[in-house]
Amino acid sequence: MKKETLAIHSTNLKDETAASIAAPIFLSTTFERSEDGTYPKGHMYARNSSPNREVLEKGLAALEGGLRAFAFGSGLAAVNAVFQCLQSGDHILMPSVGYYASYKLAEEILGPWGLQVSQVDMTDLEAVKNAIQSNTKLIWIESPANPMLSLSDIVGICQIASKLSIKVGVDNTLASPILQNPIALGADIVMHATTKYIGGHSDILGGAVVLKEDDDWAHRIQRVQILMGATPNPLDCYLLARGLKTLPLRMKEHSKNAAILAEKLENHHAIEKVHYPGLPSHPQYDLAMKQMPNGQSGMIAIQLKASENATQKFASTLNLFQQATSLGGVESLIEHRKSIEGPQSSTPGNLLRLSIGLEHVDDLWTDLRSALDKL
Ligand SMILES: *Cc1c(COP(=O)(O)O)cnc(C)c1O
Question: Record's Gene3D superfamilies (predicted)?
Fold first, then answer.
C-alpha cells in the first residue's frame, strides 16, 4: 500500500461496543483479567501497554517500515530510550550540529554513568570514519539537522557502520516518515519527536522509536519504556494516531510551500543566504534529491544582511509568522536560534529558522516580503 493509504488504515482501532468509525479513547489504566489469569486483549496495566498507544505504535512502524515501534512522552524520552541500550564504557558518535538537548542528555546525564560521547561533522564521511572508536556502539544521525538543515549521507554512514557492527540511529523528526525512511536507507533505529510534524498542531509533546528488527535493542527499549515509565497518555496517543492520518497530505503542502518560499527568499536583496537543501544552489542539493526525492521538509533557515540585533527584531515584525521555538505545526513560526541556544552557540547571529505552515503561500510571502523590504 502507498503511504496515504497506510497512514489512514494502519491507525485504525476497531471498536466492538459502538462500531464507531473513529477510534475510541481508552483512558483505563488497568485491564480485566480472565479466570485463568491471562489478559484476553493483551493489556494488563497502562504503563506496559494500552489500546491507543498500541495503535499509534503500529501506525508508526508501518509508515517507517520497521518491525517494532515504541511511543514516549517526549522526543527526548525517546532519545533516552535508545541511549539506554548502551552500557557503561560504550561510546556514541553524535553530530556536531544537531538538536542540542540530545547531545546534552548523552553528555550531562548519561556521561556520569559512564557513557562516552563525542561529536563529529556528520556531513563528512571521512571524518565519521576517523571518529569511530573501538568502543563505538551507536552512530546518531540527525538529517536534516537543526538549525541549518544540513544533510548527512545516511546510506554512506550505514555502510561504514555495518562493516563494524555499529548500530545507526536517525533522528528523522525534520523529514517525517513521509519524506524519508532511514530504515530503507540502512539504519537500524529511527527516532521522532512526534511533538513536531506527526502531532502537527503544536499541542502535543511526544516521541517515538521505530526499530528495523525485533531484536535485543527492541526488547531493551520496551523495558526502558515500561520501567522508566516516560509513556504518553491515551489522549495524546489518540491525537497522534489521528495526526498520522493527515500527515502525508500535510507534508506535501509544508514541502510545497517551503520550496516556493525558499526560491523567493533567495532572490530577495535583504537576504545573505538561504539554507534549504531543495535549492539547486545548496551544496548538498544532489544528496537531497537522492535521499529525499519526494520533497524537502517545511523548514528553511535564512541569514539576513543585518546585524544580530536587527535580525532578532525582524523576527517580531512579521504578522503571520509568530516568533516561537519548535516546528511542524499548521501555523508558521520564526525563531532566532542563537539567542535560544545560548552563549556557547555557534549558530550565526543573523540566522532565523522558519517553520513553514499550511497558510496560503501567497499570504506567507506577502508577510515575509513586506518585512524584508523594510530592512
Ligand atoms: C524537538 C526535537 C527533539 C526533542 O523533542 P521533545 O518532544 O521536545 O522532547 C529532538 N530532535 C529534534 C530534531 C527535534 O526537533
Answer: Aspartate Aminotransferase, domain 1 (3.90.1150.10), Type I PLP-dependent aspartate aminotransferase-like (Major domain) (3.40.640.10)
- Ligand 1 centroid–CA 113 distance in Å is 23
Burial 19-33 (b: 16+ CB within 10 A, else e): eeeebbebeeeebee
Ligand 1 binding pocket, CB closer than 6 Å:
74-76, 99, 102, 142, 146, 171, 173-174, 193, 195-196, 205, 207
pLDDT tens for residues 319-342? 999 999 999 999 999 999 999 888
pTM over 0.90: yes
Give the residue, by CA position, lying nearest to ligand 1 atom 6.
Answer: 75
Please say which residue of 242, 277, 301 terminates a domain.
242
| Chain segment 120-132, per-residue pLDDT in tens | 999 999 999 999 9
Residue after which a domain boundary falls, among 176, 210, 242: 242
**Residue 15 scores a pLDDT above 90:** no
> What is the spatial distance between Cα 244 and Cα 8, in angstroms, rounded to a whole number?
7
Contact 321, 332 (CB under 8 A): yes
The total domain count for the chain is 2
